[in-house]
Amino acid sequence: MGLFDKIKHAFVKDKEEQQTEDTTQETLEEEKAEESTEADVANSAETEEATEEIAESTDRPVDEEETGEIEEAPADTQKKYEKGLSKTRKTFKDRMNELFANFRSVDEDFFEEVENTLIGADVGFDTSMRIADELREEVKIKNAKKPAAVQNTIIEKLVDLYEEEGEMEVNELNEQQNDLSVFLFVGVNGTGKTTSIGKLAHQYRQEGKKVLLAAADTFRAGAIDQLVQWGERTDVEVVRGNTGSDPASVVFDAMTRAKEEQADVLLIDTAGRLQNKVNLMNELDKIKRIIKREDPSAPHEVLLVVDATTGQNAMNQAQQFKETTDVTGLVLTKLDGTAKGGIVLAIRNELHLPVKLVGLGEGIDDLEVFDPNDFVVGLFKGLLQEE
After folding, report:
1. Half-sphere exposure of 43 toward its Cβ, with a 13 Å CA cutoff?
2. From the CA atom positions of the chain, what is the Rg in Å?
3. Are 327 and 304 in contact (CB under 8 A)?
4. Longest dimension (CA), the chain
5. For residue range 183-237, what is the model confidence (pLDDT) as tens digits?
6. 89-121 pLDDT, tens per residue?
7. Kind of pairing between the strands at 367-369 and 355-359
8. How do residues 314-352 score in pLDDT, each as one tens digit?
């Protein structure tokens, strides 16, 4: 089953569940009305109690929608994606509604509006142009004229392109079995780099692995202190030096310690200073030379951390770091707090960098290995229209 078929299946399933829910509610309301007319004042309390029992038997509290107090926690990762992408989904839906508000005919002006709409939804310039071009042909083939059919075709083309570009993509972290895994984290300040390292350390500790952290961002005392705090929180040792010391020396000490203590995972924090790419490149090259001298197969991942809330700026950062160092994958933070989640499409389609980890909440357990299927279903399921 292709990705778009999975989205349609999820869409139909949601519709069926909603119809069942609506029918159940209507039945409850009818039964409540009948009981109210038949009951007298003396047994009105008993009637109300019976109504509550009926509501409980259908697992739907009578006043759930009115109070807004009952909210189910995500039951699995798919639910986390659906909840985390709610802002992006709403923004995308609003843009689609605006696109079709003045819909008259599928002409050249309309296709230009499609391009502008997709660019505004942060899916990338090249991607937007390609989708508009493919849409021209698809609309002719399907003879799509109604807004719902055209909108579904737009989504289908986006999903198909996303699936096509990701055929060879590897989203799992390159963990070494029965050996030390060395992950180097890069990215500008404020993207959530140190927090992501701390959360990943917590996950590995939960799996029973021996983890070490290296505070190689020695240019900011705050960066060292923050990583030390995460080390204390997760019960993980932090290898560090003094502020202003050589980052490569910290990495050397960390590699040595990791070998001596037979660690499973070493997570290395580095400085991110894009204003001087030459110095940054030299620093990262020196760090990688130290790592390779101790372990020729390492680093096993060079993970660029970008803030999803910055949209196109995150794309620019990814492009610059890609030119500077051998980035193997992205950590996309704050995906749950942005309406710019469409940037994942642009990253895959235009930069061809795999997203490895995503932040789907503020909790310590809300850093998830990126699942491209869960992402695309969570983003587009609520955007399909009944034709």
Report:
1. 9
2. 26
3. yes
4. 87
5. 999 988 889 999 999 999 999 999 999 999 999 998 888 889 999 999 999 999 9
6. 898 889 888 888 877 778 888 888 899 888 888
7. antiparallel
8. 888 888 888 878 899 999 999 888 888 888 888 888 888
Residues in a beta bridge with 333: 307
Phi, psi of 218 (to 5 degrees): -90, 0
Is it the case that residue 147 has pLDDT exceeding 60? yes
Please say whether the beta carbons of 174 and 181 come within 8 A.
Answer: yes
Task: Determine contact, residues 312/228, Cβ cutoff 8 Å.
Answer: no
- Could you write out the DSSP letters of every residue in 54-75? HHHHTT--TTHHHH----PPP-
CB of 153 within 8 A of CB of 142? yes
- Amino acid letter, residue 361: G
* Number of other CB atoms surrounding residue 363 within 10 Å: 9
Residue 192's closest CA among 376, 348, 337? 337
Is residue 157 within 8 A of residue 355, CB to CB? The reply is: no
Can you give 117-184 as a three-state secondary structure string? HHHHCCCCHHHHHHHHHHHHHHHHHHCCCCHHHHHHHHHHHHHHHHHHHCCCCCCCCCCCCCCCEEEE
**Other CB atoms within 10 A of residue 286 CB:** 15
How far, in Å, CA of 117 to CA of 371, rounded?
26
Pick from 385, 384, 381, 380: which is nearest to 121 by CA? Answer: 380
